[in-house]
Design a protein that fits this description.
This protein is α/β, with parallel strands linked by helices and 343 residues long. Helices cover 43% and strands 16% of the residues. Strand 7, helix 7 and strand 8 form a beta-alpha-beta unit. Helix 1 packs across helix 14.
């Protein structure tokens, strides 16, 4: 079967990584899967025109109900959709977008939610058939670059210290856009750094919103102890994560943060903002720490620095959670079965 797969493919983002992994699952089942960026299409008619070209597509899949799913409404082939984060958390607030997403769910053969909480939220906010929605957590795979220089990375980011071995780096991994709220901790962290120069916050991720990125750059320049790093390839990012003290998430809303899950697999403690998407995968004081304010973040971070037993418990439980709940083999089986329903 020849499958068209639509997703937002901004390089080095969680969406892109997820799409490539799902595509690999489909290809492993013997199908042809063509992955296309949703930004290449202006409307559903653009996709329907693509469908008339040879060789013909027999089925389709999209990540994100509005950005991807709306483009498949006139595709003329069976299709499935995968919920993102912003579709249920943000786009549903827009009446037009909500209507479009309900139409997508009505026409789709299946929909995939990464968590039970996301499925429940979709059912509460959108008109949809419960039996259509399958819950399948993201499978997680990490690979660390072998020849990554931590000192060079810190230097390129602007961190200047002779005490590299004593430095505690809090790494905030996100695409630079407002919903990720990377400046949320800026003032509180800068104040903490002034008291303890060996703690630094490094924000790293691709530019998604250029206007907002300029705001971030200006704010970081005016702060102490907070730095903005150039984006890295996946293997180098995983190496940087492994060298850091903790992974930070400060998003206003999340679907399922791949960075949090990757950090757990890499043995990194996680400090995540207490929003539904994060609370669905981070159990407070068990697999990570959930905070509700910048001040609470600093308080928890201080505690984590001083409590090696807490560090070890979070790391151990995080690794066990990934092995149990985010297995790529289980994910592969699920998507291969779902794609078969598109025949």
């Amino acid at each position: 079967m020849r499958v068209l797969f639509l997703a937002c493919l901004s390089p080095k983002t969680g969406n892109c990584t997820t799409a490539e992994r799902i595509r690999n699952h489909i290809v492993a089942a013997g199908h042809t899967c063509v992955l296309c960026d949703t930004r290449e299409f202006n409307s559903a008619s653009d996709v329907s025109s693509l469908m008339t070209q040879e060789p013909r597509f027999e089925a389709a899949l999209a990540i994100h109900l509005f950005k991807g799913g709306r483009l498949l409404l006139d595709a003329g082939v069976p299709f499935g959709v995968v919920f993102g984060g912003t579709d249920v958390n943000e786009d549903v607030k827009d009446e037009h977008k909500r209507a479009v997403m309900e139409e997508v769910l009505r026409k789709a053969r299946f929909a995939v939610a990464f968590t039970d909480a996301l499925k429940e939220q979709a059912q509460a906010l959108l008109v949809c058939e419960s039996k259509k929605i399958c819950v399948q957590p993201q499978g997680i795979e990490t690979k660390v670059a072998l020849h990554f220089s931590w000192s060079d990375f810190l230097h390129s980011t602007g961190v200047r210290t002779k005490q590299v071995d004593n430095l505690h780096v809090f790494l905030l991994v996100c695409g630079l856009r407002r919903v990720k709220d990377p400046l949320y901790l800026l003032e509180a962290f800068a104040e903490w750094h002034s008291q303890n120069p060996l703690v630094v916050l490094i924000i790293i991720g691709p530019v998604i919103d250029p206007v907002f990125t300029a705001e971030v750059e200006e704010s970081v320049k005016r702060s102490v102890g907070v730095f903005l790093a150039a984006e890295l390839c996946q293997e180098e990012l995983h190496a940087a994560m492994q060298k850091s003290f903790a992974l930070v998430n400060s998003s206003l809303s999340e679907g399922m943060s791949a960075a949090i899950l990757e950090a757990m697999e890499l043995g990194l403690p996680v400090l995540a903002r207490d929003v539904p998407g994060n609370a669905a995968i981070v159990e407070h004081k068990v697999t990570g720490l959930l905070y509700s304010s910048p001040q609470e973040f600093v308080s928890m971070s201080r505690k984590l620095l001083d409590d090696s037993e807490l560090q070890e418990r979070l790391v151990r439980n995080g690794k066990n959670y990934i092995a149990t709940c985010h297995n790529t083999v289980k994910e592969r089986i699920t998507y291969q079965k779902l794609v078969e329903t598109l025949h």
